[in-house]
Specification:
disordered N terminus, single chain, transmembrane helix, membrane, mainly alpha, about 75% helix, 7 helices, about 210 residues
Length: about 210
């Protein structure tokens, strides 16, 4: 039964990890598309500040997203580390809120969202059409991020994670290099199962007690 539970948990973890990997890739592509749309915005009569900020967001969020939430998610899935789960929820939650703001598209934020694209139709239709693409992609990214957060939280609760456990990992330093699920399971099995001889020993002849 324990093996079946571990197998199902591993399958769910693999699916969520694949989702987070695809999400990270799509978000980076969205930032590249946003640069092109901000350039079209600038050419159509908008502010060049948006184009400069769009480049900054790509340079900043691509490596930071990988280090700050993608890697903690991988470590959390690999070892059921409550500390890495907490780091993921905190940083990824901030990333989700930022993506929602990017999807809205306030002017001067360096993001071509819905508000910026729709209001720019009265100025330049061609540029506004380009600006719709990152608006759609930011919206899809935000929805996928919300789904990812809910699924990761389900795994976190199912693995018995807690804030107290995260504090213990921080105090002991186990969050730096936590053991994998396989290592934990091997230690559990090796320390818990008694050893028995493979062949029983019988008394010779008929000398039974």
């Amino acid at each position: 039964m324990l093996g079946v539970c571990l197998f199902l948990l591993r399958c769910e973890t693999a699916r969520v990890h694949a989702l987070s990997c695809a999400l990270f890739t799509v978000y980076c592509i969205t930032l590249v598309v946003n640069i092109i749309a901000c350039l079209a915005w600038w050419i159509g009569g908008g502010s060049g500040v948006n184009f400069g900020l769009a480049i900054l967001w790509l340079i900043l969020f691509s490596p930071c997203g990988y280090v700050c939430w993608f890697r903690p998610a991988y470590k959390a899935f690999r070892s059921d580390s409550s500390f890495n789960f907490m780091a993921f929820f905190f940083i990824f939650g901030a990333q989700f809120l930022l993506t929602v703001l990017q999807a809205i598209g306030f002017s001067g934020w360096g993001a071509c969202g819905w508000l910026a694209a729709i209001t720019f139709f009265s100025t330049n239709v061609a540029s506004a059409v380009f600006m719709l693409f990152p608006a759609i992609m930011f919206t899809m990214s935000a929805v996928t991020m919300l789904i990812c957060i809910l699924r990761v939280h389900k795994i976190y609760r199912g693995a018995g994670g807690s804030f107290q456990k995260a504090q213990d990992e921080w105090n002991s330093g186990a969050w730096r290099n936590p053991p994998s699920r396989e290592a934990q399971y091997s230690n559990f099995s090796g320390n818990s199962l008694p050893e028995y001889p493979t062949v029983p020993n019988y008394p010779p002849g008929n000398q039974w007690p």
